[in-house]
Amino acid sequence: MTAQPTTALRAAGLILRRDLALAFRRWEQVTHPVVFFLIVATLFPLALDPKPSLLRDIAAGVVWVSALLSSMLALETLYRADVEDGTLEQLTLTGQPLALLLLAKTTTHWLLSGVPLVLASPIVAIAFGATGTSQGVLMASVALGTGVLSLIGSVGAALTLGSRRGSVLLSLLVLPLIMPVLIFGARATDLAMQGEAADGPLWLLGAMLIFAITLTPFASAAALRISLE
Question: 3-state class of 217 per DSSP?
């Protein structure tokens, strides 16, 4: 009875290592979202009046919209390659918990798309005149928010596997569901840039992440089985 969880966790770890190794061979998939994030976010200070007060007022919204759109660029490719080479069908036949295996793949997606955005967010924050404390809050909120987006996006990516216009449908499915992430993430950033405590929005983002980790792997597994039938 004790061998099954160990085997399942080992299988999830092998999938995580495999996906990371494959991603390192295709660096453009890793750099594309973060380059898009940096370009979009830094264009706003150049296009608007460079008053520090104006930049601080729009910083939270600009950074968060740019971060979420950048993270969504990689969602469509979450399962595409594995469908084309038959890997997903093999995963469903392994006898291991499919939800856990898909959680490992989603974790890989966050490591490759969310973590670079977290590391790049202080660079963007400097362009908007953010202080050291607000930069830390921004990094924490982006880490939590992109984690929720990856988990919710995995369900949408699984549902749209068989669609010819999967990217459009994926956006229509995911964007309404991540609006709370955008609202609370931008609110946390705005409060930090104003020198106020941002604990409330950060706790809400953390609760959303825990809730997503609990439910979305099972929803992704069910959606994947439907798409593969």
Answer: helix
Tokens of 200: 């409330």
Assess contact for 88 and 223: CB atoms under 8 A: no
Q: Are 200 and 134 in contact (CB under 8 A)?
A: no
**Within its chain, how far is the Cα of 73 from the centroid?**
10
pTM, two decimal places: 0.85
Token pair for residue 1? 């009875």
CB 157 within 8 A of CB 163: no
User: Residue 56 pLDDT more than 80?
Assistant: no
120 near 34, Cβ under 8 Å?
A: yes
Say if CB 149 and CB 182 are below 8 A apart: no
User: Cα Rg for the chain, rounded, in angstroms?
Assistant: 18
pLDDT reported for residue 164: 65
The mean pLDDT value for 183-198 works out to 85
Judged by DSSP in three states, 174 sits in: helix
Supply the DSSP symbol for 79: T
pLDDT band at 2 (very low <50, low <70, confident <90, very high): very low
Q: What's the rounded Cα separation, in Å, for the pair 91 and 95?
A: 8
Who contacts 194 (Cβ-Cβ below 8 Å, separation ≥6)? 56
